[in-house]
Amino acid sequence: MSSYDTIIIGAGMSGLAAGIRLAYYDQRVCILERHTTIGGLNSFYRLGGRNFDVGLHAVTNFTPKGTRKGPLARLLRQLRFNWDDFSLSPQIGSTIAFPGVSLRFNNHFEFLRSEVERSFPAEKDNFQKLADTVVDYDDLNENVASRSARSIVGQIIKDPLLVDMLFCPLMYYGSARENDMDFAQFSIMFRSIFMEGFARPWAGVRLILKNLVRRFKQLGGELRLRAGVRRMEVEGGRVTRVVLDDGTQLAGDRVLSSAGWVETMRLCDGVHEVKSSAAGQLSFVESVSLLDAEPRELGCDQTIVFFNDSDKFHWQKPDELVDVRSGVICCPNNFDYAQPLDEGVVRITALANFDRWKNLPEADYQAAKAIWYKRMVESAVQFVADFRPRVVASDTFTPMTIKRFTGHENGAVYGTPEKRWAGTTHLKNLFICGTDQGFVGIIGSMFSGIAMANRHLLGMPEKTDPASASAAKRQTDH
Amino acid sequence: MTPAEIKEVILDILEDIAPDEDLSGLKEDVPLREQLELDSMDFLDIVMELRKRYRVQIPEDDYVELSTMQSTVKYLAPLMKDLQKA
């Protein structure tokens, strides 16, 4: 039986980053991935000779080369990458578009500030106050950090429309909780999106994944694809063996799982009941349209448009298959690259109901994909130029696709609303990282793996690498 | 190892941890935290690399000694004087 210092479940951003950290310090590490490819939630596939990206539209937390502060800089040091290794090109400009009013923003916070002042002159000082609060969130005590962001922001910003507009991008890019976020999460997301910003490698997220895997292997790490975990044997409060789908048994001193909280618990022998309600409920449908023109030439000149066409913004599991009242439109072409992408691409994301999709008979499933693709695009072109005549190919993925690629119950993109910041479990040598530990986004996911590896798996002293969950939260800082 | 060699060791480690940094202008007596924005996670990497490369154990209470290049070299000199630079 092969044995390892650490076994990591899942070759997504967090598992790979954790693996690199451990391999730097000479651990024997094995990453187990159920799929034939890496990436988990952030992945890619080929269809009809074309590359399709799935997962996040952009890297958030972007800071320019030479920046020493902030999550990206800290992550690069921890993984020992050069800034250039990720080949990040900044966004051109994005918009939050609601009925009758829109706010544009880019990677310079001043611009958003001026937009707020233009559209909501009465909120100028309040917005500044919110920004100040968000910047200082490290100093928030736990009571404030876990409080409802809706309630805190609602006390600072008076106009409910502006509140909704500010929440819309943050929720779409990382809220596992319906209709609200906790204030710590809000602050992290606010900074990562509005104060730092968006970027993307020309070659897509796959470039970052490939870099991670290459580094992991160079350091002697072992990656096993098609190696799903069936169960974990438990003895004396510890995981003793990891059993794969094909019956292979592996021994590990410690296990770090990025499979999700509920999903990981289900793998443990002796855990008989896991509340399904603990899993998240929010899932997405995403459509990808390939165009025979640059989106900019058609008038789609924004990097990302977060839209909502109703009086109020609803962040909840829809009753129907898809809620097309709001969504996110991303043109991966509209980043500041040295050369254009090969094709025009428009991706649209909207909230979806996992159960409704799951219960569709196969024949209806395909038809529903086609119908909802059409409806999503129809809704989107209220806010961007009509690109439909130039579509040459399209694909749609559903909560079922997300479930298949991530293993997350309910196809819950951002996992459970109850995050486990400490990363510990009821078993002494089992830890969790990734979405359900608490960090989202590409940089956030990697940071989660790094933080959990440092804290639980490297034998780092407790005092300097602060032991309390709140300190971990601060330190990882998305 | 001489103090000059110990300094080289530290610079090697810093170069690995922060590959984008130009360390040629590093000031001897200004805290590394300030100059490079290193945080506690980075300091732990320095400690762990010293342990990995030279089996030098630094007790946690002594981490404060690693504040500047000068103080680091001074602190490490007696611990590393009998070691050979790799």
Indicate the proportion of strand residues of chain A: 15-25%
How helix-rich are the residues of chain B, as a percent range? 40-55%
CATH level-4 homologous superfamily of chain B? ACP-like
**Residues in helix, % of chain A:** 25-40%
**CATH class of chain B, please?**
Mainly Alpha
Could you say what the CATH architecture of the largest domain in chain A is? 3-Layer(bba) Sandwich
Number of helices of chain B: 4
Total domains of chain B, how many?
1
CATH topology of chain B: Non-ribosomal Peptide Synthetase Peptidyl Carrier Protein, Chain A
Tally of separate domains of chain A: 3
Low-confidence stretches of chain A: 461-478
Relevant CATH superfamily of the largest domain in chain A:
FAD/NAD(P)-binding domain
Shape of chain B: globular
Helix count of chain A? Answer: 15
Taking all residues together, what is the mean pLDDT of chain B? 94
Gyration radius of chain A (Cα, Å) is 22 Å
Average predicted local confidence, pLDDT of chain A:
91
